[in-house]
């Protein structure tokens, strides 16, 4: 039986609408050792939409599942055509004020680590070190047959060569780097195989319906155990891959703070949820702490 992804949840009426008071976040960072858990909402100001917020991609687009990807060549053709087009835009995205603020907090010794649910690499591009990519990264490709890894830019070059006449245009890009295309636009797009064994290539990301590698999960659990507090940035926490760490922190009596414009599935576990745009909020917190943040020109 195929397992379908968890795409939505229904908020209960007793969830708080949130506050605009950033002092709890500043206080946690002053104490130090904060563990950051970020989601798609931190990258929206870089031009990458989120899944579930206002105008989120799930309102028009169902993400590829692992089961669909591995089931047949036609599904992979659709995925790689859309992803190849999306990569042209996705790969040009730059870190925004939120990413740069997180990197600045790290440089000043205020963080114990960063876990991100995003696959865009923008935390690293902003200067954050030791980022745990919970769902992998779009800049890498893995062969499902032999396990060989390669760079996405190399695959992009090979796909360009194999599809010289491919000129489809998409009106929208999605958080996973996928672009919206019709079957007619996909046409007879050619998928290229692994250069090592001729096997099936997949982006090194965790698709919906696929499990996060257990070692990665345990590493994140260790980070939660060691951190005095957890700061969630831009995640609805709809999927268990991120929510489990919020629950773990709350059960251990660690303060959980959430900065997200909309209600989240983890709000009941948080001591505070701040309903503000991430870039504005984190830049304000940096100002409260006297932490200088690199300007835009210092990004990737």
Would you kindly provide a written description of the structure presented here, covering whatever features stand out?
With 300 residues, this protein is of the alpha/beta class. It is 34% helix and 14% strand. The protein has ten helices and nine strands. It has helices at 23-31, 66-71, 73-90, 97-107, 122-126, 152-162, 183-186, 214-226, 240-251, 278-289; strands at 34-38, 111-116, 132-133, 136-143, 149-151, 201-205, 229-233, 256-259, 272-274. Helix 4 (97-107) runs parallel beside helix 10. It is elongated, with a radius of gyration of 19 Å. The termini are far apart. The model is unreliable at 1-5 and 55-60 (pLDDT under 50).
Task: Give the amount of beta strand, in percent.
Answer: 5-15%
Shape: elongated
Q: Which structural class best describes the helix and strand composition?
A: alpha/beta
Q: What is the N-to-C succession of helices and strands? A: HEHHHEHEEEHHEHEHEEH
Secondary structure tally, helices: 10
Gyration radius (Cα, Å) is: 19 Å
How does the major sheet shape up? 6 strands, parallel
Q: What low-confidence regions span 5 or more consecutive residues with pLDDT below 50?
A: 1-5, 55-60
Helix fraction, binned, reads 25-40%
Count of individual beta strands: 9
Mean pLDDT score: 88
How far the N terminus sits from the C terminus, by CA atoms, comes to 43 Å
Strand order of the largest sheet: 3-2-1-7-8-9
């Amino acid at each position: 039986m195929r397992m379908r992804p968890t795409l939505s949840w229904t908020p209960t009426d007793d969830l708080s609408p949130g506050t605009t008071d950033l002092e709890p976040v500043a206080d946690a960072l002053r104490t130090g050792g904060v563990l950051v858990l970020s989601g798609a909402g931190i990258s929206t100001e870089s031009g990458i939409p989120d899944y579930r917020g206002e105008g989120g991609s799930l309102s028009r687009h169902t993400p590829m599942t692992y089961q669909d990807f591995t089931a047949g060549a036609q599904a992979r053709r659709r995925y790689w055509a859309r992803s190849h087009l999306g990569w042209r835009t996705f790969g040009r995205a730059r870190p925004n004020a939120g990413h740069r603020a997180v990197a600045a907090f790290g440089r000043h010794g205020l963080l114990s680590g960063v876990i991100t649910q995003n696959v865009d690499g923008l935390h690293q591009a902003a200067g954050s070190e030791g980022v745990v990519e919970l769902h992998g990264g779009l800049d890498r490709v893995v062969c499902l047959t032999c396990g060989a890894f390669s760079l996405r830019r190399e695959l992009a070059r090979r796909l360009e060569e194999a599809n010289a006449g491919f000129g489809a245009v998409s009106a929208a890009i999605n958080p996973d780097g996928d672009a919206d295309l019709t079957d007619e636009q996909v046409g007879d797009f050619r998928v290229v195989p692994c250069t090592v064994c001729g096997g099936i290539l997949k982006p090194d990301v965790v698709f919906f319906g696929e499990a996060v590698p257990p070692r990665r999960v345990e590493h994140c659990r260790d980070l939660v155990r060691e951190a005095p507090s957890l700061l969630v940035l831009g995640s609805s926490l709809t999927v268990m891959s991120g929510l489990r760490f919020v629950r773990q922190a709350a059960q251990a009596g660690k303060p959980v703070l959430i900065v997200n414009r909309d209600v989240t599935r983890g709000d009941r576990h948080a001591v505070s949820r701040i309903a503000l745009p991430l870039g504005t909020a984190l830049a304000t917190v940096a100002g409260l702490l006297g932490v200088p943040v690199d300007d835009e020109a210092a990004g990737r």
